[in-house]
Amino acid sequence: MDQNITFWKKGKKGKEIESKSRKAYELLKKNGVPVYYDSKDCVTHSKVLVIDGYITILGSTNWTYSALKKNHEASVLIKSHRVAEAFLEKLKMIPKY
Predict the structure, then answer these.
(1) Average pLDDT over all residues of the chain
(2) pLDDT score for 17
(3) What pTM did the predictor assign?
(4) Among 8, 89, 14, which Cα is nearest to 57's?
(5) Which stretches of 2-80 are DSSP H helices?
(6) Is residue 85 within 8 Å of residue 50, measured between CB atoms?
(7) What is the DSSP letter of 74?
């Protein structure tokens, strides 16, 4: 979580969908990082990170210690303005808190 805050404070323009952890939400919001949640009617299982409108990281990997260090997970990194813009448009449909 601290890496997400540091990344945001360095001026990187990323938007992240986090798990609904109240502690994580409060920490990110306190540090000015935009956090988006799905409604109860529609859940996005994939995790998406858009960086600087060019880099998109997409996958089902939870960004937890267990998922990153112990599990067999898969995500992709895509370098494309068009793909990043498409995901940012999709993110705009998710309420911001």
Answers:
(1) 77
(2) 46
(3) 0.56
(4) 14
(5) 2-9, 22-30, 65-69
(6) no
(7) -
Residue 60: both structure tokens together: 């089902």
SS3 call for 70: coil
Residue 17 included in any domain: yes
Instruction: For residue 70, give the CATH number of its domain.
Output: 3.30.870.10
Total domains present in the chain: 1
Report whether 83 contacts 56 (CB < 8 A): yes
Q: Which two tokens stand for residue 87?
A: 């995901």
Question: Is 28 within the bounds of a domain?
Answer: yes
Give the C-alpha separation, 82 to 37, whole Å: 23
Q: Which domain holds residue 87?
A: 2-91
Own/partner long-range contacts of 42-46 (Cβ < 8 Å, ≥24 apart): 44/17, 44/94
Q: What digits encode the pLDDT tens for the residues 6-39?
A: 555 666 555 554 455 667 777 878 888 777 666 7
CA 53/CA 74 separation, integer angstroms: 22
